[in-house]
Amino acid sequence: MDPTGPTAVGTRAASPAPAEEVVEHAPDGLAVIDGEARFLDANPAAVRLCGLRPGAVAGARSPFPPPGDPAVAGRPGEHTLDWEPRPGLRREFAYVVTQVPGRPRWVVSFRDVTMSRLRERRLAAIAKAASSVASKRSLLGTLEVLAQEVARTDALAGVQVLTVNGSGNRLHVMGSAGFGRSGEFFDRLMQCRALGARLRMLDALGSREPVVVPDRYDAVMQDPAWAPLHDFMRHPRWDWFVSVPLLARGEPVGILNAFFAPGQTVGDTELEFLLAMAEQAAMAVDHAALLERERDVARREERQKLARDLHDSVVQQVFSMMMQAKSLGVLVARGLPPAPEEVAQVAEDLSGSAEAVLADLRGMVVELRPAATSAQGLASALRSLVDSTAARTGVDVSLDYADPDACLAAVDADLLEDVYRVVAEALHNSIKHADATRISTRLAVTPHGSRRQVVAEVTDDGRGFDPRTGAEPGGSGSSGLGMTVMRERAARWGGAVRVRQPDGGGTSVRLTVPLPVGSPATGTEAGQ
Hints:
Layout: H1 18-25, E1 29-33, E2 39-42, H2 44-50, E3 79-86, E4 89-99, E5 106-112, H3 114-134, H4 139-153, E6 158-164, E7 171-177, H5 185-194, H6 200-207, E8 211-213, H7 216-222, H8 230-234, E9 241-248, E10 251-259, H9 268-333, H10 340-365, H11 375-393, E11 396-401, H12 405-408, H13 413-433, E12 438-448, E13 451-460, H14 481-491, E14 496-500, E15 507-514
Parallel strand pairs: 11-12
Antiparallel strand pairs: 1-2, 1-5, 3-4, 4-5, 6-7, 6-10, 8-9, 9-10, 12-13, 13-15, 14-15
Helix pairs in contact: 3-4, 3-9, 4-9, 9-10, 10-11, 11-13, 13-14
């Protein structure tokens, strides 16, 4: 290869000189380019790496920036660039540019660093996911970051991370990249299944082994059974599909779905990366489950403490009241009517004891509330929560409950419990942070497209939050533990929690949760 002028590749002398042999057989690419970054000549390695036609090198556009480009001009040493010679094929080159003395030509020496850089990014992605799990962030936030890292690292078209609910009959999207979120996605997926569509992710979940499906996009788009999801799955364009189960302690706790861009294929290295990220996702799910169990233990211990407090305070005071009332009965039975001043003293003591008992009960009733395991239980628990909060704090707390028992009769008890917990946390925040004098609580079931949704809203007249920063009452911000937990509970059912400032001031926390179509027998809710 003559750096001072173009030489047709393949027209070397019959007996090349030693230097030419080095150029011919060098593993790195060597090329000569002009001021517009067009090839003048290239060795065989460069032809192969850049996908050139051997007989048509001169004049072909190179992947390198023009030598005068500000991005590289005046910067000696090695540079890197990304190049996509065709859709789905992505390469990374590390290169050095040297000008030929006295000539408007430049020699480029470059090598393919695609796999080494990809390994570095994959290791960084795994480390970032592990750090996220170790830092005990919210499950929703961790899995969202993990999905985005998987998609970004391997330039995938889309990624979903789904988790199994406590009863094991439903899956929920907890992390997503590439695809949007649709409130009707689960319903349409179940329609596809009813029409005969095969959900390959369920194969992975059942077998506990990864499932790799080539050319999946065309099969889905051409199958009428997938028609309800064609609009959702059409963009971005993808091709191969991989579903990897999330296993914690040997049991499936979720699924990682990867949608590969056209031109990408799945080999051992791609699958190893997905398995590593699935392992991190499983650890996050397992950690969240352990944390929830710890919270359950803490709640049981707190209830036991409250029971002891009831015995030590309320029971003792009621016993005292009973003895005082019985003393009057004993006097009357003996024919010794008590003097008016004695009756007044006993009445005053009874009144004082009753007030003390009432105050203690008001402080304990919220912790002893029944679980919202049915529609009637939810109504009762919310009424108890509102009444006890008003009695204990003196704040005017109201409840507007439109008796949606018929709509909620077949709803999962865990969903109702989460609705109650979100309302309780929002009410607690208003009392603790907002300095409110009036709080209104509303629960209803309203139409939502082709389905219905539970709407719960807590609105106060307190000091609100800073609209410039979005800081919520008390300066907790959207990352506060209480708000994070509320959003996790909503996301578990495909819902959302939104905080806004009404026109009249104060703060409104609104929970919306779509209700499943039909009964709990609709089957597993999943993605792909």
